[in-house]
Design brief:
D-Maltodextrin-Binding Protein, domain 2, alpha/beta, ten-stranded mixed β-sheet
Length: 325
């Protein structure tokens, strides 16, 4: 009898504990956020990714009832900040706003300290950077076909923001598709790339089309490497529209959390971000900054990023082989 009584007590205790443990995720989500949320931007202040994060932060308090504090942790092509974010507590109070295209490609090109898919969970896409082929307005190359023909006859030079990034990979893939070879020159930051092409230091550049804003009378975009035009800089045609062979390269601005973050917290944060983007101040600031706003929830983001990864894998292998020669 004593044994039966003990077993009965043990079962009741276990049931009570289970009742306490099961709603923990719901309780955590209900309380979230209980303090300011830190948004790690793994690049310097003033760049495209940073601008997206600060635009989000400008309206976050009204939705979260807590401030969203942007912290820049640049270095290592975005991986210094990414490692810091991956090591943070998985309670949703540390998120990362990342240029997912370069984040994914960086891991394809060389071993990195963290992986976008195994160390993080995506929360939402909040925007997208488009890369384009850009020349000075006084360039003899009026079209992509003009430049391709010239590049097959002589050695041209071009600028980008770093090997392994979206712009470099777009340009390298374009060369492979079109069958020519050039001299690529990496620069630190899109502003420096723009200066290089404006100053005639290079023949052309692959750069974010948002960098052309304000310089429309000095720069010409020969094509955008996506299936759709940039929603803000929508005067520039895609290569697809022009019938020019290319590989799609974009960089979705993605909000990530550490992999161990509870799904209910992710769900709440996903909805909150959508609400932030619907605020008039967000839309106004995004438009004035030339940001291409996009929204995908956590599940859609996961599928989208994996689709891009699968598209880029064979291209990354080709570019690695080319760089090793």
């Amino acid at each position: 009898m004593k044994i039966l009584k003990f077993c009965r007590q043990a079962l009741l205790t276990s049931a009570a504990l289970a009742a306490t443990v099961l709603p923990l995720g719901e309780a955590l989500a209900a309380e979230y956020p209980s303090k300011p949320v830190t948004a790690i931007v793994p690049f310097g202040a003033g760049g495209g990714t940073d601008t997206y994060a600060r635009t989000l932060a400008s309206v976050a308090y009204d939705i979260l009832q807590q401030p969203l504090v942007v912290v820049n942790r640049p270095g290592g092509g975005g991986y210094v900040g990414a490692k810091f974010a991956a090591d943070a507590r998985g309670d949703g109070h540390t998120i990362m706003v990342q240029s997912a295209g370069s984040f994914i490609l960086g891991g394809m090109m060389q071993k990195r300290p963290v992986d976008p898919f195994s160390d993080f969970k995506p929360v939402a896409v909040i925007g997208q950077l488009h890369t384009g082929l850009v020349v000075p307005m006084d360039s003899p190359y009026q079209t992509a076909e003009d430049l391709i023909a010239a590049a097959k006859e002589k050695k041209l030079s071009w600028a980008h923001t770093g090997r392994g990034g979206v712009h470099h990979m777009a340009g390298s893939a374009f060369e492979i598709k079109q069958g020519f070879s050039t001299k690529d020159i990496p620069y630190k930051g899109g502003g420096n790339v723009r200066t290089a092409v404006l100053g005639g230091q290079v023949d052309f550049a692959w750069m974010g089309v948002q960098q052309v804003a304000g310089f429309e009378d000095k720069l010409r975009v020969l094509g955008v490497a996506n299936t759709e035009r940039d929603p803000v800089q929508n005067q520039y045609k895609t290569f697809e529209e022009q019938g020019v062979d290319y590989v799609r390269f974009v960089s979705p601005i993605t909000v990530y959390v550490p992999k161990r973050t509870d799904q209910k917290v992710i769900d709440k944060l996903t909805v909150a971000i959508k609400e932030m983007q619907q605020q008039k101040p967000f839309k106004k600031l995004a438009k004035s900054s030339g940001l291409a706003v996009m929204y995908k929830d956590a599940a859609e983001t996961d599928v989208y990023l994996k689709t891009l990864r699968d598209e880029w894998l064979p291209v990354a292998d080709q570019v690695k082989q080319k760089l090793s020669k």
